[in-house]
Predict the structure.
Amino acid sequence: MKEIDVHGAARKEMSREKARIMRKKPKRTPILEQAALEWKKRKEKERREIEERRRVQKGEEILTISLQEIIPQPRTLDHKTDDAMEWRQYSPWQKEEKKEKRPLNASSIWVFARKLMAREWARALGRRREDARMGALEREAAWYKAKKEEEKKRIEEEKRRIDPE
């Protein structure tokens, strides 16, 4: 029994209607060619069936892996070993992640050139380029220091309340 693809049938019907409105003759394969294609499909199917019967008679089996044969191995907690690898399931329906390319126009090229020139001048004048992470680390250190000072003040205040002398 032939399966009917609803979307394909709808597309064909829409294209036929569009062709009818535009008074175009529909493209049809000749009857002889259709018969030849059907014959070719039938012969191919028969050939595959014969090949399958021969394989079964010879005792050849298609290699398969049964789920019972797979022995689950305990996972190591140490991810830093050489054999630890991050495997990801490939999905043909999901596109691979690609880096987003920034559009290059005259203004972005100009800004990039200015940044390069500023870096070169700074290097020529002997200024060291600061690490981008240092600013965040310094802010974190200042916040931590302020938090510790507040905690010390709060502890001293509690001690004064308990022991008023």
